[in-house]
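Hi U.,

Before I forget, here's the chain from the pilot set. I'm dumping it here mostly so it's searchable later in email.
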Amino acid sequence: MAGLDRPTSGNILIEEQDINNMDLDQYRREKISMIFQAFHLFPFLTALENVCYPMEQNGSTKKDATPIALQLLDNVHITPEHAKRYPSNLSGGEQQRVAIARALSTGAKYLLADEPTGNLDETNSERVIEILRKLAHEEGYCIIIVTHDLDLAKKTDKVYTMREGVLS
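Structure:
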C-alpha cells in the first residue's frame, strides 16, 4: 500500500487508481504517509524541522511551514520547547508523537502505522492510540495499523489477520 514494492500479482487500488499506474514518489508525498515503529526521525533536525521537512519537500517555504508544524506538534502534545529539541533529547513517546506530526504534515489522509506503540511504555502507548483514534474518528483519516499486539488490535474498529500469507 505504501508503494515501496509493486505487487507481483493482483492490484492495489487507492481511490480507484491502481498504484502500478501512479508516480509512486508523488503518491508517497501527497496521498499516503507512514508512521514507523522506529520513528525514523532525522537525527540532525529538531522536532520542528522534522515536521517541516515534508511540507518543504512539497514546495512550502520554511516560513509557511513553521506555524503549521507547531500546530501539528501541539496537537500531539509536543510543547514549543520540546519542538526545539533533537530526537536524541526526546523520550520514545515524544519521538513517536513527532513522527505522527511529521506524517500529518504531508496532508495525506491515508496513514500507515507499523507497530506504532511497539517501542513505547503503556502510558505513551495509550496516548498514541488516542491520537490515532481521534484522527480516524474526528478528522477523517484512514489509518491502517500493522501490529502483533493483540491488545492494540482490540482497540481498532476493524481487524484483519494474516496467516501464512493470507489476509482474512
